[in-house]
Here is the input.
Amino acid sequence: MEEECRVLSIQSHVVRGYVGNRAATFPLQGKRTLLLRVLGFEVDAVNSVQFSNHTGYSHWKGQVLNSDELQELYDGLKLNSVNQYDYVLTGYTRDKSFLAMVVDIVQELKQQNPRLVYVCDPVMGDQRNGEGAMYVPDDLLPVYREKVVPVADIITPNQFEAELLTGRKIHSQEEALEVMDMLHSMGPDTVVITSSDLLSPRGSDYLMALGSQKTRAPDGSVVTQRIRMEMHKVDAVFVGTGDLFAAMLLAWTHKHPNNLKVACEKTVSAMHHVLQRTIKCAKAKSGEGVKPSPAQLELRMVQSKKDIESPEIVVQATVL
Here is the structure.
């Protein structure tokens, strides 16, 4: 019997839809016939917020977990000696004390298991039409820079978040590679800029993502693999794609630990299938010429289960 691989996922939760833990735990646990046999994932979820739905809707209600409540939950795990993990996955949070508590938990878990891998999606903001904006309080940025990124092993910022973390603007692929090197120097061995405003070599209809991974060869030398991915743009605003991306990257880097190209091809190809199915269903529901609503644009996760389990590779990564 294969040894289980356990993930502690600290993210938001919604009753309706797929963002945060709802997006992350479906691909990690929902792939039961594949992952538990081949990869062996079990996911323990801590909900940093519990909302009725994501905040892209006109209205939402719910509760926010504070740092003391997070500590209480973790203490319960410790008292029962069930705080042993192989991975930690984190996403959206709005409170700096909560984020600092996450770092304390990660550090303690790494002391228990030095091989633990911390996957961090540093959710802070995004850019539209070249203008960046933060959608979390400004005081989270120094916590991410000084405490979170140094203990992370894999980070998945978008272009704007990578710029925030390094204080360096990105205007070209070369500058993006330099920014990823800066992020490597801060701690993580794997950096994936999940989306950018850079012009793709394939044209303006494509979205460019970039990745960089440092691995250690048997002789002790460090090898760096850099890749570029180009995905066809979809004319819609989806919520939860970053959460899904980070969870699937965790899964596929576990399966292919020294091959970022393959891990990203599987992750991005699965994303492509999910988004194409989602926009097709949304347009069918909204009707011709009518912009789909946030409810209609909820990710079609259940319908995409086979694509998440075993994605047909439709996005090939270019090795740089």
Summary: The chain has a mean pLDDT of 86. The chain has ten helices and twelve strands. The CA atoms of residues 145 and 203 lie 33 Å apart.
